[in-house]
Each structure stands twice: as structure tokens, then as C-alpha cells.
């Protein structure tokens, strides 16, 4: 294994906690004490890593076009082993391989079909994180795929070019399956992005960067026993499944598609020399304009596309510096908020190619108007609950009308970290507290970090996909919180419609003998209003 990481003391200025969250302190302390989630102390890996392994680039998924004109992909969830360190085999899971999965690519307007086969010994799902699609194709906890079964969701790509991803979403077991390695990228393309001057040669100047923290035992196996309130805290980083990675850069400008694929850790990505980079896209696609910055905070599930300029022959490291969690100093230390981590070494060649000056004016984003919102909803995250409710697979929490614009106000009532992800929709951020959103929150988002005591006002417009019985999810994307019940369900109905009855997990499973395409489960009881 690589050398043990050095722990260096670090001083941190305490963050004031608003009165709105003070009442949650005792609950937070109780949750932390009960689970012995005391964190890992301060981890600092700067200078402790020899970047000896070339960065793995996930292969592009093969596809065919069938007689119906659908682009067809095949994925198989499977168990295997991976040598992150030569000669040390770690038990891992992956799609079409031993760890992670291939990168799916599709264009806006294409019809896609994905045959998902489960070769594991336990049931799983595949959720298309960030995708707008029918609920029964979303891959949430109601769409379980049993061992030996195949599920074939099909849907039309109808959203801008963006970096999306896919991962399991089984009820109560998501953290474990993601920790084992089940995840992959789903890149969307469109004509607007294609017309811009941007790096887009996959694996050459357009680089996926899936960052995950992991911890290994003496036998080289994953362990998750060192935890904060946020969940497991790893002391080593995998980037695209590579320990201690370096990237040979051959172009003046490189596009890094940053994906926080960790189950719990928050990162603040920047560079070892403090250089500025241009943020060009967030979760759901391009920003209106490139935004220069020297760091960007990403919580689990969030993505960012950045452009980095290099000069011939230089070396610079992508790093994560202590992210501002908005918590007290002690809570930050217990929840990986004081860590400084070397992530990836970029090595520029002696001669670099050029695409010319990258575009700075990017996408046309029509702002959603609060005046057009038909409904305002409020969501408070506290403990492992949303609006004082734990997840109930048989309960529909919210009913949304197709095509409606809504404002969702979300706040974290604890002095500890949470974030918030909404399925099947990209939202815009109207306000952060009393302020307009910063540049990094000015585009399309599907996941957002919730600083304690800060109210986030989100506006979103729902697609026309309707199913009164089959729900989408909203939840904290710190996966231990999701597994513990910090999740709710909403259905999208026709205007004037009412919610039905959601399937139970058992009735939603795809039996081995049922290979039906996109088939939803039966309705369990007569529809009722919500």
C-alpha cells in the first residue's frame, strides 16, 4: 500500500451558527455519539503522494442503433477484484468491468435504451443522476433489479449538453454499493455546445475526473469504519479508480469534468499554485459565461466542468483544500472539513497543441421566473428526516403537476453538513440566504450543498412525464443519510390529477423471468388523493 498519510494540525476559525439551528445541536450531538462518528482528525496528503500511476480513462461505452432507431447500451453490474496497488487485489464491483463503468454518450433528441443486467448476488438499481426521464425509467428504489434479472429502460434525451452520471439507488443499501465501485458517467451532447470552441477530444483534452475517497485495511480491502456524521471518511483518493494518478497533458487548455463520486466527503477543488481556472458548466450543463475562479466546492453528487490553461513543460497538482462546510470548527474537523488532499498531477508536454481561444460566452439559459411559479414548497432537513419524516416507500410526499414551475425552499436545520438532490429535474438557484447565487450556482443544478442556517430558494420546471403511482425521489446525497431515511417521494400528474399509490420495494422488483422493457409494477390499491 502507499505510505500512511501524515496528520498535520490546522487551526480553523469557528463559524457562527444561526439561531435557527441552535435547537438542533443536542439532536446532532446525540446522533454523532450514538454512531461513534468521531471522524478521522485532520488529513493532509500534500507532498506525501508520489504520482506514479497514469490516470485511467473510463472507456466509451459501445452502442448500436436498433430497428426502432434507439441507441442501445449494455451494462452489467458485476463483482470482481481490482489491483489499485500492484499485487494487492481488492474486492470491487463495477459495470462491464471490475470497478466503475464505461462512459455513455448520447446526443440531445436521441432515443436510448440501456439493458441493465445484474450479475451480483444482491438486488440493485441504476439511477440516471441528473436525467429528465419518465419515473419508471429513473432507477430509484422502486425499480429494483434482482440477481440474474435484466431491466431495459428507454427514454429520449431532452436536455442540454452536460456531465451526468449513473449509480445504484437501492433503499437502505446505496452507500455500500457505491463504495464497492458502482458508478459511471453519462455525457450528453447538443448542437449549441458543439458550435463552441472548447476541448472535446475525450481522454485527450476532455478528461473525466471521478474523485472518490477510500480507506483500505491491511489486506487491501475497502473499509468504512472511520466515519463522521457525513459518513465514511477515506484517507486515500481514487480518481477514475486510480491511486496516485498523473495525467500527461498535450494541449494548452484541458477540460476537466469534475465529479464528486464520494459517498460523503465534500471537496474544494483548486490547484497547488493557486492559479485561476474557468468554470464553464455545473451539474446540468454550460453556464451563460465562463466564470474565472480559484476554487470550487463540490458535495457528493455535484459536478463541474473547468478549463485549465497550462504552459509547456510545467507540472501542477489538482488539490482539494479545506471546504467551507458552514459548521463549527470541531464539527468541520470531525467531518473532513479540515483536510488538504493532493488529487491529480498534471504534466504538460514540452510542446502543446492549441484549439485557439476558448469560447467565453457559452449557453443561452432562460431564467425561470418566480412570478410563474404555481406552487411554493418548503423542505427542512434535520437529523435523518426531511420535514420531520423518514422515508416511507408507501407514502407519496408531494404531488406535482406536469409542466408546472415551482419554487422549493430548502434549509438545513442542523449545525452539521447535508446536501439536497432532486430527481428528474434541473433547477436554478434564486437566492442563497438573502443574496443572489454566486457564479458557480448560476447555471442548471440538480444537487446543492446546504450550509447550516442558510435558506436556499430553488426554482424548477417539471417535464410532461406523468405517472400518479410511480414516484421520483428528493434526498440528501450523503448516502448514509439517504440510507437512514433522509429521502422523500413525489409524483408528477396531469393538471388536476391526484397521486396514486406507490409500489412497494418488493412489488417493484424485476423478477428473473420478466425481461419486460421499462415495465412498471402494478398498482397495489385504488388511487387516493394527496
What is the straight-line distance between the termini?
A: 54 Å
What's the story with the biggest beta sheet?
A: 7 strands, mixed
How much of the polypeptide forms β-strand, as a percent range? 35-45%
Please state the overall shape, judged from the principal axes of the Cα atoms: globular
Mean pLDDT: 91
Helix content: under 10%
Q: How are the strands of the biggest sheet laid out side by side?
A: 16-15-12-18-23-20-21
The total count of helices amounts to: 7
Q: Please count the beta strands (DSSP E, at least 2 residues each).
A: 35
What would you report as the Rg, rounded to the nearest angstrom? 22 Å
Chart the SSEs and their pairings.
Blueprint: H1 19-22, H2 25-35, E1 53-54, E2 64-65, E3 71-85, E4 88-95, E5 104-107, E6 111-118, E7 127-129, E8 150-151, E9 154-156, E10 162-167, H3 174-179, E11 184-189, H4 191-194, E12 206-214, E13 227-228, E14 231-232, E15 236-239, E16 242-243, E17 245-251, E18 253-260, E19 267-271, E20 277-282, E21 285-293, E22 296-298, E23 303-309, E24 315-320, H5 329-334, E25 341-353, E26 375-382, E27 385-386, E28 398-401, E29 405-412, E30 418-422, E31 427-432, E32 447-450, E33 455-461, E34 472-475, H6 479-484, E35 487-493, H7 505-508
Parallel strand pairs: 1-17, 3-6, 5-11, 12-18, 17-25, 26-29, 28-35
Antiparallel strand pairs: 2-3, 3-4, 6-8, 6-9, 7-10, 10-11, 12-15, 13-14, 15-16, 18-23, 19-22, 19-24, 20-21, 20-23, 24-25, 26-27, 29-33, 30-32, 30-34, 31-33, 34-35
